[in-house]
Amino acid sequence: MQDLSGKVALVTGAASGIGRAIAQAYADAGAKVAVADIAADKARDAARSMGPDAIGLAMDVTDEDQVEEGFAQTARELGPVDILVSNAGIQIISPIVDLSYADWKRMLAIHMDGAFLTTRAAMRQMIAAGRGGSIILMGSAHSHVASKFKAPYVAAKHGLLGLARVIAKEGAANGIRANVICPGFVRTPLVEKQIPEQAKELGISEEAVIRDVMLKDTVDGEFTTLEDIADTALFLAGFGSNALTGQSLLVSHGWHMA
C-alpha cells in the first residue's frame, strides 16, 4: 500500500505544512504529484524539490475556473488524477458575537466549497479514466468536537464528514473511496498563529494555551506531527478496496476517541 508508482495525486494547500508533507510522501512513494496552492511561486518551488514528476499549480480552491484549469493542466502534464487530498484551509479565531459575516463566509468557502469543487473535478477524471481513486478530505479533531472561538472552522470540519460519506456512496460503483483525516494539533504556522490569539481571548499565557487547551486531552501531551498525517494519507491513498470508505481517521494522540 506504500507503493504509488503509476498514480497521479493532486494535493491542495501543498506549498507548506501538512499539504507539503503529504505531497512529498506521495512523491517518495512513486506518485506523480500536482502541488496546488494559492501561493503559486511557493507551489512551484515545492514541486521542484520533489523531482521531475511533480508540477506546481496556482489554485484558489474557491475559484471554480482555477480549480477546473488546475485539474485540466494536471491531466495534460501528468495524467488523470487518481488521488485527491483536499487540504487547503485557514483559521480565524473569534467569538461568535464578534465574528464578521465576511469571515464566516470566507472560512466556509475555503474549507467546504473548496472540498466540493476539487472533489467534483477529481471524480469526473476518475470516472472517465475508469480506474477508481481515493479522495481524502482534511478534517480535524474538530470534525467531532467543538472549541470556543472557532465557529466557522468547527462547522466546516463537521460538514466534511457528511460530504465524504456522500462521495463514498456515489463513488463506490466506480471504485472511488472517500475518507477524512482528522488531525489533532499539528505545530504548523496555522497552529502557531492560534497560540497567541487563544491566549489573548482566554486571558492566559501562551504556555497555558499549549498545555491546558491544545494538548490537555491527549494521552501524552504531545503534538501530532507532519509525519503522522503524511503516513495516514499514504495509507489511505494506497488502500485497495471499498472496505475503507466514508470513514474519519482521528490522528490526535487520543485527544478525541471515536
TrEMBL record:
GO terms for biological process: monocarboxylic acid metabolic process. InterPro entries: 3-OHbutyrate_DH, NAD(P)-bd_dom_sf, Sc_DH/Rdtase_CS, SDR, SDR_fam. One of its GO terms (molecular function) is 3-hydroxybutyrate dehydrogenase activity. Pfam families: adh_short_C2. It comes from the Bacteria. Belongs to the short-chain dehydrogenases/reductases (SDR) family. This is 3-hydroxybutyrate dehydrogenase.
